[in-house]
Amino acid sequence: xxxxxxxxxxxxxxxxxxxxxxxxxxxxxxxxxxxxxxxxxxxxxxxxxxxxxxxxxxxxxxxxxxxxxxxxxxxxxxxxxxxxxxxxxxxxxxxxxxxxxxxxxxxxxxxxxxxxxxxxxxxxxxxxxxxxxxxxxxxxxxxxxxxxxxxxxxxxxxxxxxxxxxxxxxxxxxxxxxxxxxxxxxxxxxxxxxxxxxxxxxxxxxxxxxxxxxxxxxxxxxxxxxxxxxxxxxxxxxxxxxxxxxxxxxxxxxxxx
Length: 257
Ligand code: ADP
Ligand code: MG
Prior knowledge:
binds magnesium ion; five-stranded antiparallel beta sheet; globular; binds adenosine-5'-diphosphate; alpha/beta
């Protein structure tokens, strides 16, 4: 099976008055059409890893790698315009805080409608009904009301569900989900994971699932990377995680309540 994503010696660096601070320190991994979990404590570099794949590290932060290839495309050699096209259609990212990803001056319904018109060739008259279906698909019970709200008017959990609906509209080849369910209660979390799973199975989408929740990642993903201070300290199949030997991973396992 060919790889969807190949990452070699990926580094993210921020300049500081005392020299460069490397927050992702030369990590390597490959991803097929599978669910890859990235776990580690807060500050270990998980979000920076996800964002760097999409070239979403703000200056003066820098991304370097020996290889960063998505489905044959060298992501390090794309112009900002080319990256925007890839981000909109082939790789989607659900950010940790949905408030930064939704457009504050458009209603939720308008944003979903725009995404539908851009990515799915729908007749305009069908768009409104599809907006409501998309909201229902992420278990929003009163889609008509929610469609009329602005992002600041919904809770974090609701915003996260809206983001997931939006990110799945292009049916991307790769979804990078950064703590996508951390603001959701457990039953909604399970439903949202089912929706993502459906695309992994039906479309062969690859998934990078970033989470601090070791239990969740080991039950949901196929393979796992454990990160600590910017490095990958463990790479294993999900079923092998609980038997992991690295002291850092053992510590994480021991701290599960
Ligand atoms: P995680 O998602 O695993 O909690 P992050 O990837 O967000 O961790 O952050 C990794 C490290 O990078 C953290 O120590 C964080 O403080 C640092 N960091 C994040 N953004 C910046 C920035 N703009 N400048 C300097 N350091 C940063
Ligand atoms: Mg994070």
